[in-house]
Protein backbone atom coordinates (compact mmCIF):
# COMPACT_ATOMS: atom_id res chain seq x y z
CA UNK A 1 0.00 0.00 0.00
CA UNK A 2 1.31 3.45 -0.98
CA UNK A 3 0.08 6.56 0.79
CA UNK A 4 -1.01 9.35 -1.53
CA UNK A 5 -0.59 12.92 -0.27
CA UNK A 6 -2.49 16.01 -1.36
CA UNK A 7 -0.64 18.97 -2.92
CA UNK A 8 -1.17 20.88 0.34
CA UNK A 9 0.34 18.04 2.37
CA UNK A 10 3.34 17.84 0.04
CA UNK A 11 3.86 21.60 0.35
CA UNK A 12 3.70 21.27 4.13
CA UNK A 13 6.33 18.52 4.03
CA UNK A 14 8.61 20.77 1.99
CA UNK A 15 8.14 23.61 4.50
CA UNK A 16 9.02 21.37 7.44
CA UNK A 17 12.05 19.92 5.65
CA UNK A 18 13.41 23.36 4.80
CA UNK A 19 13.03 24.59 8.39
CA UNK A 20 14.67 21.47 9.81
CA UNK A 21 17.61 21.72 7.43
CA UNK A 22 18.15 25.32 8.53
CA UNK A 23 17.67 24.87 12.28
CA UNK A 24 18.50 21.35 13.50
CA UNK A 25 21.77 21.45 15.51
CA UNK A 26 24.75 20.22 13.52
CA UNK A 27 26.20 18.41 16.51
CA UNK A 28 24.42 16.06 18.88
CA UNK A 29 23.11 17.69 22.06
CA UNK A 30 24.34 16.26 25.37
CA UNK A 31 21.99 13.79 27.03
CA UNK A 32 19.05 15.29 28.93
CA UNK A 33 19.12 12.39 31.39
CA UNK A 34 22.75 12.74 32.46
CA UNK A 35 23.31 16.38 33.43
CA UNK A 36 21.27 19.50 34.01
CA UNK A 37 23.34 21.16 31.29
CA UNK A 38 22.13 18.59 28.77
CA UNK A 39 18.57 18.96 29.99
CA UNK A 40 18.68 22.74 29.55
CA UNK A 41 20.20 22.35 26.06
CA UNK A 42 17.13 20.35 25.08
CA UNK A 43 14.86 22.94 26.70
CA UNK A 44 16.52 25.55 24.47
CA UNK A 45 15.75 23.34 21.46
CA UNK A 46 12.09 23.22 22.55
CA UNK A 47 12.13 27.02 22.60
CA UNK A 48 13.62 27.10 19.11
CA UNK A 49 10.82 24.84 17.91
CA UNK A 50 8.29 27.12 19.57
CA UNK A 51 9.70 30.19 17.85
CA UNK A 52 8.99 28.51 14.53
CA UNK A 53 5.57 27.32 15.77
CA UNK A 54 6.71 23.70 15.49
CA UNK A 55 6.42 22.84 19.20
CA UNK A 56 3.12 20.97 18.80
CA UNK A 57 1.60 21.53 15.39
CA UNK A 58 -1.83 20.05 16.20
CA UNK A 59 -2.56 22.45 19.05
CA UNK A 60 -4.66 25.60 18.56
CA UNK A 61 -2.72 28.73 17.63
CA UNK A 62 -3.76 30.35 20.93
CA UNK A 63 -1.68 27.73 22.76
CA UNK A 64 1.39 27.95 20.54
CA UNK A 65 0.42 25.48 17.84
CA UNK A 66 -0.67 25.59 14.20
CA UNK A 67 -4.11 23.94 14.51
CA UNK A 68 -3.14 21.23 12.00
CA UNK A 69 -4.68 17.79 11.68
CA UNK A 70 -3.11 14.50 12.74
CA UNK A 71 -2.03 13.57 9.21
CA UNK A 72 0.13 16.67 9.05
CA UNK A 73 1.48 15.86 12.50
CA UNK A 74 2.61 12.49 11.11
CA UNK A 75 4.23 14.26 8.16
CA UNK A 76 5.97 16.63 10.58
CA UNK A 77 7.25 13.67 12.60
CA UNK A 78 8.59 11.97 9.46
CA UNK A 79 10.60 15.05 8.56
CA UNK A 80 11.68 15.58 12.18
CA UNK A 81 13.22 12.11 12.39
CA UNK A 82 14.59 12.27 8.85
CA UNK A 83 16.52 15.40 9.86
CA UNK A 84 17.99 13.70 12.94
CA UNK A 85 16.51 16.37 15.22
CA UNK A 86 17.00 16.07 19.02
CA UNK A 87 14.74 13.82 21.07
CA UNK A 88 11.89 15.80 22.59
CA UNK A 89 12.63 16.35 26.28
CA UNK A 90 9.02 17.37 26.97
CA UNK A 91 7.32 14.35 25.41
CA UNK A 92 5.51 13.50 28.66
CA UNK A 93 3.89 16.91 28.44
CA UNK A 94 3.23 17.51 24.77
CA UNK A 95 2.37 13.95 23.74
CA UNK A 96 0.62 12.61 26.86
CA UNK A 97 -0.63 15.29 29.22
CA UNK A 98 -1.24 17.94 26.55
CA UNK A 99 -3.86 15.98 24.56
CA UNK A 100 -5.52 14.95 27.83
CA UNK A 101 -5.78 18.59 28.94
CA UNK A 102 -7.32 19.38 25.56
CA UNK A 103 -10.01 16.79 26.29
CA UNK A 104 -10.63 17.25 30.03
CA UNK A 105 -9.06 20.56 31.05
CA UNK A 106 -10.76 23.83 31.85
CA UNK A 107 -10.17 26.86 29.66
CA UNK A 108 -8.05 28.32 32.46
CA UNK A 109 -5.88 25.18 32.59
CA UNK A 110 -5.42 25.15 28.83
CA UNK A 111 -4.31 28.78 28.74
CA UNK A 112 -2.08 28.45 31.81
CA UNK A 113 -0.44 25.09 31.17
CA UNK A 114 -0.40 24.46 27.43
CA UNK A 115 1.17 27.77 26.42
CA UNK A 116 4.10 27.28 28.82
CA UNK A 117 4.40 23.63 27.83
CA UNK A 118 4.58 24.45 24.11
CA UNK A 119 7.20 27.14 24.77
CA UNK A 120 9.47 24.80 26.76
CA UNK A 121 9.05 26.96 29.86
CA UNK A 122 7.67 24.00 31.84
CA UNK A 123 9.02 20.49 31.27
CA UNK A 124 6.82 17.69 32.61
CA UNK A 125 7.46 14.33 34.24
CA UNK A 126 4.95 11.53 34.63
CA UNK A 127 4.33 10.18 38.13
CA UNK A 128 2.15 7.13 37.58
CA UNK A 129 3.88 4.13 39.13
CA UNK A 130 4.40 3.36 42.79
CA UNK A 131 6.06 0.48 44.61
CA UNK A 132 3.47 -2.27 44.11
CA UNK A 133 1.47 -0.30 41.53
CA UNK A 134 2.96 -0.21 38.05
CA UNK A 135 0.88 -1.67 35.26
CA UNK A 136 -1.98 -2.02 37.75
CA UNK A 137 -2.49 1.70 38.40
CA UNK A 138 -5.69 1.00 40.32
CA UNK A 139 -3.41 -0.15 43.14
CA UNK A 140 -1.84 3.28 43.76
CA UNK A 141 -1.82 4.28 47.45
CA UNK A 142 -0.65 7.91 47.33
CA UNK A 143 -3.35 10.14 48.76
CA UNK A 144 -4.94 13.52 48.12
CA UNK A 145 -6.72 14.92 51.16
CA UNK A 146 -8.90 17.92 50.37
CA UNK A 147 -8.69 20.89 52.71
CA UNK A 148 -10.71 23.83 51.40
CA UNK A 149 -9.31 24.93 48.05
CA UNK A 150 -6.20 22.76 48.38
CA UNK A 151 -5.18 19.13 48.23
CA UNK A 152 -2.55 17.73 50.58
CA UNK A 153 -0.55 15.07 48.74
CA UNK A 154 1.27 12.23 50.47
CA UNK A 155 2.96 9.12 49.15
CA UNK A 156 5.72 7.77 46.95
CA UNK A 157 6.07 7.53 43.17
CA UNK A 158 8.70 5.53 41.29
CA UNK A 159 9.96 5.13 37.71
CA UNK A 160 8.96 8.72 37.05
CA UNK A 161 10.35 9.63 33.63
CA UNK A 162 12.24 12.97 33.33
CA UNK A 163 11.56 13.71 37.02
CA UNK A 164 15.22 14.33 37.91
CA UNK A 165 15.36 17.72 36.17
CA UNK A 166 11.73 18.46 35.16
CA UNK A 167 9.63 21.34 36.50
CA UNK A 168 6.23 19.69 37.01
CA UNK A 169 4.73 16.22 37.32
CA UNK A 170 1.28 14.70 36.93
CA UNK A 171 0.06 11.60 38.72
CA UNK A 172 -2.84 9.68 40.21
CA UNK A 173 -3.83 10.17 43.84
CA UNK A 174 -6.73 8.74 45.81
CA UNK A 175 -9.02 9.96 48.54
CA UNK A 176 -8.08 8.34 51.88
CA UNK A 177 -10.10 5.16 52.36
CA UNK A 178 -11.02 4.71 48.69
CA UNK A 179 -10.17 1.52 46.83
CA UNK A 180 -9.28 0.47 43.31
CA UNK A 181 -10.81 2.63 40.55
CA UNK A 182 -12.94 4.81 42.82
CA UNK A 183 -11.96 8.03 44.54
CA UNK A 184 -8.95 8.78 42.31
CA UNK A 185 -7.96 12.15 40.85
CA UNK A 186 -5.27 13.19 38.38
CA UNK A 187 -3.33 16.05 39.96
CA UNK A 188 -0.42 18.26 38.86
CA UNK A 189 2.31 19.31 41.28
CA UNK A 190 5.52 21.36 40.94
CA UNK A 191 8.61 19.31 41.58
CA UNK A 192 10.22 22.12 43.57
CA UNK A 193 7.26 22.44 45.96
CA UNK A 194 7.90 22.18 49.73
CA UNK A 195 7.61 18.53 50.77
CA UNK A 196 8.72 17.08 47.39
CA UNK A 197 11.92 15.02 47.40
CA UNK A 198 13.44 13.55 44.23
CA UNK A 199 15.83 10.60 44.23
CA UNK A 200 17.44 9.79 40.84
CA UNK A 201 17.45 6.18 39.60
CA UNK A 202 20.59 5.62 37.53
CA UNK A 203 20.45 3.26 34.57
CA UNK A 204 23.28 0.78 33.89
CA UNK A 205 24.96 3.39 31.69
CA UNK A 206 24.68 6.12 34.34
CA UNK A 207 21.81 8.01 32.72
CA UNK A 208 19.09 9.10 35.14
CA UNK A 209 16.01 8.45 33.05
CA UNK A 210 13.82 7.88 36.11
CA UNK A 211 13.44 9.13 39.66
CA UNK A 212 11.61 8.28 42.83
CA UNK A 213 9.38 11.06 44.14
CA UNK A 214 8.47 11.36 47.81
CA UNK A 215 5.56 13.62 48.77
CA UNK A 216 5.23 14.75 52.38
CA UNK A 217 2.21 17.00 52.98
CA UNK A 218 2.60 18.73 49.62
CA UNK A 219 -0.06 21.42 49.16
CA UNK A 220 -1.45 22.12 45.70
CA UNK A 221 -4.52 24.12 44.66
CA UNK A 222 -7.69 22.29 43.60
CA UNK A 223 -7.29 24.12 40.29
CA UNK A 224 -4.42 21.72 39.57
CA UNK A 225 -6.75 18.72 39.38
CA UNK A 226 -7.56 17.57 35.83
CA UNK A 227 -11.16 16.54 35.34
CA UNK A 228 -13.80 16.00 38.00
CA UNK A 229 -12.92 14.97 41.52
CA UNK A 230 -12.87 11.19 41.83
CA UNK A 231 -12.77 10.69 38.04
CA UNK A 232 -9.01 10.25 37.80
CA UNK A 233 -9.21 6.70 36.51
CA UNK A 234 -11.30 7.79 33.53
CA UNK A 235 -8.90 10.65 32.77
CA UNK A 236 -5.88 8.38 33.24
CA UNK A 237 -7.19 5.84 30.74
CA UNK A 238 -7.49 8.57 28.11
CA UNK A 239 -3.87 9.54 28.74
CA UNK A 240 -2.82 5.88 28.52
CA UNK A 241 -4.63 5.61 25.20
CA UNK A 242 -2.58 8.47 23.76
CA UNK A 243 0.58 6.91 25.22
CA UNK A 244 0.01 3.40 23.92
CA UNK A 245 -1.89 4.01 20.73
CA UNK A 246 -0.79 7.16 18.94
CA UNK A 247 1.32 10.02 20.26
CA UNK A 248 4.21 8.64 22.31
CA UNK A 249 5.94 6.54 19.66
CA UNK A 250 5.71 8.11 16.23
CA UNK A 251 6.07 5.58 13.38
CA UNK A 252 8.76 7.80 11.84
CA UNK A 253 11.03 6.81 14.72
CA UNK A 254 11.01 3.19 13.55
CA UNK A 255 10.97 3.93 9.82
CA UNK A 256 14.19 5.92 10.15
CA UNK A 257 15.73 3.23 12.37
CA UNK A 258 14.79 0.55 9.82
CA UNK A 259 16.40 2.57 7.01
CA UNK A 260 19.57 2.95 9.07
CA UNK A 261 19.51 -0.78 9.75
CA UNK A 262 19.36 -1.50 6.01
CA UNK A 263 22.39 0.75 5.46
CA UNK A 264 24.23 -1.04 8.29
CA UNK A 265 23.41 -4.40 6.71
CA UNK A 266 24.55 -3.29 3.25
CA UNK A 267 27.89 -2.15 4.66
CA UNK A 268 28.50 -5.50 6.37
CA UNK A 269 26.57 -8.10 4.33
CA UNK A 270 29.67 -9.84 2.95
CA UNK A 271 30.34 -11.32 6.37
CA UNK A 272 26.76 -12.01 7.46
CA UNK A 273 24.55 -15.12 7.20
CA UNK A 274 21.42 -15.07 5.03
CA UNK A 275 19.21 -15.14 8.09
CA UNK A 276 20.27 -11.58 8.97
CA UNK A 277 18.97 -10.35 5.60
CA UNK A 278 15.58 -11.89 6.37
CA UNK A 279 15.48 -10.22 9.79
CA UNK A 280 16.38 -6.82 8.32
CA UNK A 281 13.62 -7.16 5.71
CA UNK A 282 11.12 -8.13 8.42
CA UNK A 283 12.01 -5.09 10.52
CA UNK A 284 11.49 -2.80 7.53
CA UNK A 285 8.09 -4.38 6.83
CA UNK A 286 7.12 -4.09 10.49
CA UNK A 287 8.02 -0.38 10.57
CA UNK A 288 5.99 0.28 7.43
CA UNK A 289 3.04 -1.74 8.76
CA UNK A 290 3.10 0.24 12.00
CA UNK A 291 3.13 3.50 10.03
CA UNK A 292 0.08 2.45 8.01
CA UNK A 293 -1.70 1.42 11.20
CA UNK A 294 -1.07 4.82 12.80
CA UNK A 295 -2.21 6.64 9.65
CA UNK A 296 -5.40 4.59 9.87
CA UNK A 297 -5.85 5.49 13.55
CA UNK A 298 -5.25 9.19 12.82
CA UNK A 299 -7.81 9.13 10.00
CA UNK A 300 -10.35 7.45 12.26
CA UNK A 301 -9.81 10.01 15.02
CA UNK A 302 -10.22 12.87 12.54
CA UNK A 303 -13.56 11.35 11.54
CA UNK A 304 -14.75 11.48 15.17
CA UNK A 305 -13.54 8.12 16.44
CA UNK A 306 -11.80 7.41 19.74
CA UNK A 307 -8.86 5.36 20.97
CA UNK A 308 -10.01 2.22 22.76
CA UNK A 309 -8.43 -1.01 24.00
CA UNK A 310 -6.91 -1.58 20.56
CA UNK A 311 -4.19 0.82 21.70
CA UNK A 312 -2.82 -2.16 23.64
CA UNK A 313 -2.07 -4.00 20.38
CA UNK A 314 -0.11 -0.99 19.14
CA UNK A 315 1.89 -0.79 22.35
CA UNK A 316 2.92 -4.45 22.14
CA UNK A 317 3.81 -4.10 18.47
CA UNK A 318 6.03 -1.02 18.66
CA UNK A 319 7.80 -2.02 21.89
CA UNK A 320 8.70 -5.52 20.70
CA UNK A 321 9.64 -4.25 17.24
CA UNK A 322 12.01 -1.73 18.82
CA UNK A 323 13.87 -4.39 20.80
CA UNK A 324 14.11 -6.80 17.86
CA UNK A 325 15.33 -4.13 15.43
CA UNK A 326 18.11 -2.97 17.72
CA UNK A 327 19.08 -6.54 18.59
CA UNK A 328 19.59 -7.23 14.88
CA UNK A 329 21.81 -4.14 14.61
CA UNK A 330 23.95 -5.35 17.51
CA UNK A 331 24.18 -8.81 15.93
CA UNK A 332 25.44 -7.22 12.70
CA UNK A 333 28.05 -5.21 14.60
CA UNK A 334 29.20 -8.20 16.61
CA UNK A 335 31.93 -7.33 19.16
CA UNK A 336 31.97 -3.75 17.85
CA UNK A 337 28.53 -3.30 19.40
CA UNK A 338 30.18 -3.01 22.82
CA UNK A 339 32.45 -0.15 21.77
CA UNK A 340 31.45 3.39 22.70
CA UNK A 341 32.28 5.80 19.94
CA UNK A 342 33.65 4.98 16.49
CA UNK A 343 35.55 1.81 15.67
CA UNK A 344 38.71 1.74 13.56
CA UNK A 345 36.69 0.81 10.46
CA UNK A 346 34.53 3.92 10.81
CA UNK A 347 31.41 2.17 12.11
CA UNK A 348 29.77 3.93 15.06
CA UNK A 349 27.85 1.69 17.46
CA UNK A 350 26.90 4.26 20.08
CA UNK A 351 23.45 5.04 18.65
CA UNK A 352 22.58 1.37 18.31
CA UNK A 353 23.78 0.52 21.81
CA UNK A 354 21.94 3.45 23.38
CA UNK A 355 18.85 2.58 21.37
CA UNK A 356 18.96 -1.03 22.49
CA UNK A 357 19.28 -0.12 26.16
CA UNK A 358 16.34 2.28 25.82
CA UNK A 359 14.26 -0.25 23.87
CA UNK A 360 14.58 -2.85 26.64
CA UNK A 361 12.27 -0.72 28.80
CA UNK A 362 9.58 -0.54 26.12
CA UNK A 363 7.79 -3.80 27.00
CA UNK A 364 7.57 -2.57 30.62
CA UNK A 365 6.62 1.13 30.62
CA UNK A 366 3.22 2.45 29.49
CA UNK A 367 1.76 -0.71 31.01
CA UNK A 368 3.72 -3.96 30.73
CA UNK A 369 3.08 -6.09 27.66
CA UNK A 370 1.76 -8.90 29.85
CA UNK A 371 -0.96 -6.55 31.13
CA UNK A 372 -1.64 -5.37 27.56
CA UNK A 373 -2.24 -8.96 26.49
CA UNK A 374 -4.75 -9.34 29.33
CA UNK A 375 -6.54 -6.19 28.13
CA UNK A 376 -6.66 -7.53 24.57
CA UNK A 377 -8.01 -10.88 25.75
CA UNK A 378 -10.70 -9.41 27.99
CA UNK A 379 -11.80 -6.23 26.20
CA UNK A 380 -11.20 -7.03 22.54
CA UNK A 381 -11.65 -10.79 22.36
CA UNK A 382 -14.22 -11.10 25.15
CA UNK A 383 -12.36 -13.88 26.92
CA UNK A 384 -13.07 -14.49 30.63
CA UNK A 385 -10.70 -13.30 33.33
CA UNK A 386 -8.20 -15.92 34.41
Termini gap: 39 Å
Provide the CATH superfamily of the largest domain. Answer: Butyryl-CoA Dehydrogenase, subunit A, domain 3
CATH class of the largest domain: Mainly Alpha
pLDDT average, as an integer?
87
How does this model look, in words?
This protein has about 375 residues and is of the alpha+beta class. Helix content is about 45%, strand content about 15%. The protein has 3 domains: about 80 residues, no CATH class; about 110 residues, Butyryl-CoA Dehydrogenase, subunit A, domain 2 (Beta Barrel); about 130 residues, Butyryl-CoA Dehydrogenase, subunit A, domain 3 (Up-down Bundle). It has 11 helices and 8 strands. The strands form 2 sheets. It has a 4-stranded mixed β-sheet. The protein is globular. About 40% of the residues are buried. The model has no long low-confidence stretch (mean pLDDT about 85).
Tags for this model:
Butyryl-CoA Dehydrogenase, subunit A, domain 3, Butyryl-CoA Dehydrogenase, subunit A, domain 2, 4-stranded mixed beta sheet, 3 domains, 4-stranded antiparallel beta sheet, alpha+beta, 11 helices, 386 residues, single chain
What is the strand and helix layout of this fold?
Blueprint: H1 7-23, H2 36-51, H3 70-82, H4 91-104, H5 107-119, E1 124-127, E2 143-147, E3 150-157, E4 168-174, E5 184-190, E6 196-201, E7 210-221, E8 225-226, H6 232-245, H7 251-268, H8 274-302, H9 311-333, H10 350-359, H11 369-380
Parallel strand pairs: 1-4
Antiparallel strand pairs: 2-3, 3-7, 4-5, 5-8, 6-7
Helix pairs in contact: 1-3, 3-7, 4-5, 4-6, 6-9, 7-8, 7-9, 8-9, 9-10, 9-11
Amino acid sequence: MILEYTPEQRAFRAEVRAWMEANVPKTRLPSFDLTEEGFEAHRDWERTLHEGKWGMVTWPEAYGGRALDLIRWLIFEEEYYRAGAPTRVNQNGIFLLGPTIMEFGTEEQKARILTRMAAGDDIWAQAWSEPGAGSDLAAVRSTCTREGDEYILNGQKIWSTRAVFADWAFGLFREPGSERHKGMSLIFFPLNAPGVTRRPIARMDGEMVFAEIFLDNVRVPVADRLGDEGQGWHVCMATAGFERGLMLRSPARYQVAASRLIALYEANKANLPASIKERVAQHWMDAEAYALSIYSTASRLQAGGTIGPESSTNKIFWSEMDVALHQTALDILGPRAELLGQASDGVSSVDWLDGFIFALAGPIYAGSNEIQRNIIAERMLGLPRA
